[in-house]
Structure formats: structure tokens, C-alpha cells
TrEMBL record:
Gene source species: Cephalotus follicularis
Every Band domain range: 1-72
Cellular component terms (Gene Ontology): caveola
Entry protein name: Flotillin-like
Subcellular location: Cell membrane; Membrane, Caveola
Topological relation to the membrane, as annotated: Lipid-anchor
Gene3D superfamilies the record matches: Band 7 domain
Top-level taxon in the UniProt lineage: Eukaryota
Family: Belongs to the band 7/mec-2 family. Flotillin subfamily.
One Pfam family from the record: Band_7
């Protein structure tokens, strides 16, 4: 080490001495616990260390001044730098703040517009949904109204059809009832008329048989009184027919036939006429005369048979009744015996 290094670096020198001496003492097992190095001083007439001290002091003072100036400079520069950095940072921060503010404002406006647009879209969508729902509701209402009207029409038509069916059934039943009633009335009337005609025909036949028998009896006896009896019976027969046609009840006549009252009446009339012994002339409608002028009994009988066809024809035209087959029958143009 140089003298300047030793003077300037006392501590380093001391540490260097300790280290070198300790190495020598280590072989003897000795340790240095404390050691002091005496400060170097000048001898009389030699002021080397004093000059070095002054120099060191001056250098230290100058260095201190330099350090102070440098520190001042650095302080001012640092202050200015700090102020500039502060201003710059403030401006930067202001700019960034403005940028961020503008950005945030733009984003805010953007978000506002977006929210407004979304709200508008949502509102339009809701309006569209409401319109669609209203349209669907209107369609359903129209369909319901149509279904209701169709149901009412179907019910009305069903009621009308049912009413028509019931009316048809009622009319059919009424028609059947009227038909049955008419059939019953006509059938009963026809049955009654048939029974009446059968009864009348039976009575006619019986009376005609009686007339036929008494006529033949009179012819066999060949007396004028017998002819009168025959004519009397024929007259009673035709009077009885005209009485029926005039509305007189025929139950009494049937009862009289069943009791053989006509036979008894005919016998009584024949006996009465026979006891009187009258002179009777019979008009034949062709040749007039009595029994003595060329005919005898057969002429009178021929006169009676001549009178029968016009009478039977009149009865047939008025009543529709025909004479018995043994008595005669009608042809298309005339009456035959």
C-alpha cells in the first residue's frame, strides 16, 4: 500500500495488518483480540502528513461542495423532472382520463343506444307478440263464433228435422187413423148393406117362393079365386118392397117372416077372397077382356106375368136389386122371363 492509501485508508490498513500478523501468529496458536494503529504524524521539519491531511480535507471539502452542487443540481433536476413528470403524468392522466371519459361516454352512449335499441326491439317484439296473440285470439273467437253458429244451426235443423219427422209421423198416424176409421165406416156400412141386401134377398126369395107355390096351387085348382089370391100376394110383396124403399124398418118384416106370419096372412086373405066369390078382371096391357072372352085362367096368369117385367125393371133401376133367377133375369136391352 502506498502512503496515501495508508493515510486515506486507515481502517483498510489496520485490517490488512491484522490479517498479515494473524497469519504469522497462527503457527504459534495466538489470536489477536484487539489492536490499535497509531495515527501517522509528521516529524519536525517534515509536514507530509499535514499536507496530505489538508489536501484530503480540501479534496473532501471540494468534493463536498461538488457533491452538494451535484446534489442541488440533481435535486433541482429531479424536482423539475418530478414537476415535469408530474405535469406529464397529470396531462397523461388527464388525456387518458379524457380518453377514458370519452370512451366511457361513448361506451355509455353506445350502451345507452344499445339498451334503447334492445328496449325498442323488445318493445316491437312484445307488440308483435301482442298483435300475434290478438290475431290468434280473433281467429279463435271467429272459429268459436262460427262453431257456435254452426251448432245453433245444426240444433235448429235437428229440431226442425225432428219436428218434421214427428209431424210426418203424426200425419201418417192421422192418415192411418182416418184410413182405418174410413175402412171401418165403409166396411161396417158395406157389411150392414150386405147383410140388409142378403136379408132382403132372402125375404124376397121366400116371398117369391110363397108366391110361386100359391100361384101353382091356384093354377092347379083352376079357380078365379086362386088367381085373385096370387095377385093379392104379389101386391103385398111389392107394397112391402116399396115400404122398405120408403124408409120403413125391415126388422118387423124379418120377424114376421121368421114367425111365418106372411104365410098365415096369405092363407087368411085367400080364404077371405074365396068366401066372397068376386068377379075379378085382370088387365094384361095387351088384350083386354075377362075370363069368359076366350082365355080362361091361363089368360089371366099371362096378364100377371105381362105386368111383372116393367115392375121389376123399375125396382132394379131404383134399388139395384135383381129378381130371383127362377123368376127371370135382365139382358142388356130387355127383360126376359
Amino acid at each position: 500500500m502506498t502512503m496515501e492509501e495508508i493515510f486515506k485508508g486507515t481502517k483498510e490498513f489496520k485490517q490488512e495488518v491484522f490479517n498479515k500478523v494473524q497469519l504469522e501468529l497462527n503457527q504459534f496458536g495466538l489470536l489477536i483480540y484487539n489492536a490499535n494503529v497509531k495515527q501517522l504524524v509528521d516529524v519536525t521539519g517534515h509536514e507530509y502528513f499535514s499536507y496530505l491531511g489538508q489536501k484530503t480535507q480540501m479534496e473532501a471539502a471540494n468534493q463536498a461542495k461538488v457533491d452538494i452542487a451535484e446534489a442541488k443540481m440533481k435535486g433541482e433536476i429531479g424536482s423539475k423532472m418530478r414537476e415535469g413528470q408530474t405535469t406529464q403524468n397529470a396531462a397523461k392522466i388527464d388525456a387518458e382520463t379524457k380518453i377514458i371519459s370519452t370512451k366511457r361516454e361513448g361506451e355509455g352512449k353506445k350502451e345507452k343506444f344499445k339498451v334503447t335499441a334492445d328496449a325498442k326491439i323488445f318493445e316491437n317484439k312484445k307488440k308483435a307478440d301482442v298483435a300475434e296473440a290478438n290475431a290468434e285470439l280473433a281467429m279463435k273467437k271467429a272459429w268459436w263464433a262460427q262453431s257456435s253458429q254452426l251448432a245453433e244451426v245444426e240444433v235448429a235443423k235437428a229440431v226442425a228435422v225432428r219436428e218434421a219427422k214427428l209431424q210426418t209421423e203424426v200425419e201418417r198416424m192421422n192418415a192411418m187413423h182416418r184410413t182405418e176409421k174410413l175402412k171401418a165406416d165403409l166396411l161396417s156400412k158395406a157389411s150392414v148393406e150386405y147383410d140388409i141386401k142378403v136379408s132382403v134377398s132372402s125375404m124376397h126369395c121366400e116371398i117369391c117362393v110363397y108366391i110361386y107355390i100359391y100361384t101353382h096351387v091356384c093354377i092347379s085348382n083352376c079357380t078365379c079365386f086362386s088367381v085373385c089370391v096370387c095377385l093379392s100376394l104379389l101386391g103385398k110383396y111389392f107394397l112391402w118392397v116399396f115400404a122398405i124403399l120408403s124408409g120403413v124398418t125391415w126388422c118387423d118384416s124379418i120377424t114376421m117372416l121368421e114367425k111365418n106370419m106372411f104365410q098365415e096372412m096369405a092363407k087368411i086373405n085367400a080364404q077371405a077372397v074365396n068366401s066372397l066369390q068376386p068377379q075379378i078382371s085382370v088387365w094384361s096391357g095387351v088384350n083386354g077382356g075377362d075370363a069368359e072372352n076366350g082365355g080362361g085362367v091361363m089368360k089371366y096368369i099371362a096378364g100377371v106375368y105381362t105386368m111383372l117385367p116393367p115392375l121389376l125393371k123399375t125396382v132394379n133401376e131404383q134399388t139395384g136389386m135383381l129378381p130371383p133367377p127362377w123368376l127371370g133375369k135382365f139382358t142388356a136391352d130387355s127383360i126376359c122371363n
